[in-house]
Amino acid sequence: LIRISFKIDRLEQAQIIKTPWYYGLGIRMTPEGMLYNIQGPKAVKIRYLSNGRNKSVMIGTLEPEKLNKVLETHFKK
Q1: Of 74, 73, 77, 71, which Cα lies nearest the Cα of 45?
Q2: pLDDT, mean of each 10-residue run, the chain (77 residues)
């Protein structure tokens, strides 16, 4: 279906956040950046460096703890 990828040169921060209900589901532009939300009220907010630029994205998932752990394990500082 839809596949989205991000080129992450360096992970700056990954944190679990609660998204407001009015952010909704799907791909959304929010005041905090892009939100890709499949389901659930929680997301992992990822701040990263890509091609020398700071970027931010939020990934909504039912298992934010697992996603956060994988990111921090894979992109150790």
Answers
A1: 71
A2: 82 94 91 88 94 93 94 83
